[in-house]
Amino acid sequence: MKSCEPVTPTTTFLAFLRYSSSSSNCNSQELLRDFATRELNAFLWISLIAITALLLRKVAKLFKLWAQARKIPGPLCSSFYGHSNLISRENLTDVLSVSHKKYGSVVKLWLGPTQLLVSVKDPALIKEMLIKAEDKLPLTGRAFRLAFGPSSLFASSFDKVQRRRESLATELNGRLIERASVIPTKVVDCIMGRIHKLMDKGSIDCKMVSQHMAFTLLGATLFGDAFLVWSKATDYEELLMMIAKDACFWASYAVTPVWKQGFWTYQRLCTKLKCLTQDIVQQCRRNYKLFCHGDGNLHDETANMGMESVSATPSCSCVEGPDNFFSNELNGHLSAREEPCGNIMGVMFHGCLTTAGLIGNLLERLVTHPEIQDKIYSEIITARKGLIKQDQQCVDKMPLLLATVYESARLLPSGPLLQRCSLKNDFNLKTGVTIPAGAVLVVPVQLVQMDDSSWGKDASEFNPYRFLSKSGNGSDLVLNTSPTGVAEELVSPCKSKFVLNDPNDNVAFLPFGSGTRACVGQKFVIQGVMTLFASLLEQYEIRLSSGSQCDLNPSMNHGVFQPPLSPKIVFVRRNS
Fold this sequence. Notes:
The chain is an alpha+beta fold.
């Protein structure tokens, strides 16, 4: 029997509230679900529109690039991948040589459907291009960033490096060049000690010798004499060369290849190099403090002079002290994103590679032209007369040596191509050609520096006297006579009627680049290499190793100088 409950107004009102609450919850959930659906659809539409706009923008830029490239002469491209197959089968400089002969001073090649390469050979256009194209290739910036961390000195964009480049140029061409002009005998002794050890194991080639000479010269100049007795210098040199071998390979990835085991091996090498760099910097500063504590008066004197006495005192810093070059110039005012000692490693890395190339070319020229070496030796002995300090070299009185350095750099520059780009803006050359932003701009340095129209009919021959002229007829007179014909008059500076021309007056002289991104250490490197070779040739004669074959007339291919294999050489001490 069912129990009957009386229906009262209270129970009716409670039932109504329960029904209203249930209905309200259902409506709220439906509203929330509908709102979420609308928001998701709106987000998807906005994303679709943004991605479509981005793709359309890229397509528009691609069509603009193709339209601009059509106005630049160059070989037809029948493949979607551009001329990469042609370039992979042949040397790029050879390809550019043939293209320039057929299409003129400005030619294009496609490295891919979106990557345009423009080569400029005319010296006047090269000068204009290098002034307007201020940026380095992104690949260069990535290579330095992966190896040494973020840097304000080796970034691709010129705007990011301009201030630091100016301060580095002031330092290298000012106080450090003073130290390079007084390279002590102990630097040569340090280099020769290592070379003699290598010679005991067998013959050595120019490449091996030049690498060690460049490394020791740059390290001793930047870090002082502490670098010469540093026990880890050999490890540092080996690490630097190992990193140089793989730097461009890992930088060529558009996305950092963290999934590859070899990349992490490369990163461990870079970490070791950073630790060693910090070690030599700290040791340099520590030795400097001990030296200053032992002789405060001498510290005050050298601080006022702006350099240390290399011959009389153990210089333990690069110039004045540990806090001026390293802290104020290279690593001064570091941002939170920059790597400590990163700029120092970059200077050592880039400086060693370029300087080693110049020294190697100079060694090859000296061993293959012994008559030039003999005349330089006579020039050194004559210039040494009257010098009070025996560890100094008066390189200003050695025009033949300097001309030989310039001629070696002309025939075999450190790299076959000079590369630039304009990352943001298009620019026009005076011929009316428009260079698109982002295009890879190259100067075939070997072709330009071997061009008969700029250097005469003997452009392919080694002739250091082309940089010398008669003092009475101005600096525009270029000598094209044979080395043996003029050298006799250069033996005695007091009787010499010849002076050295400024090679930069010839716009076709580009071993150190030109324009806004030219090498800031050009004067420093030339001065250091000259002083080093003056001290070296005074004590040693450089000869070809017995049984070593070296072609005195290297071959030419499409107007490009083909260097011989690195010859085996020996150093023979001269009879004093």
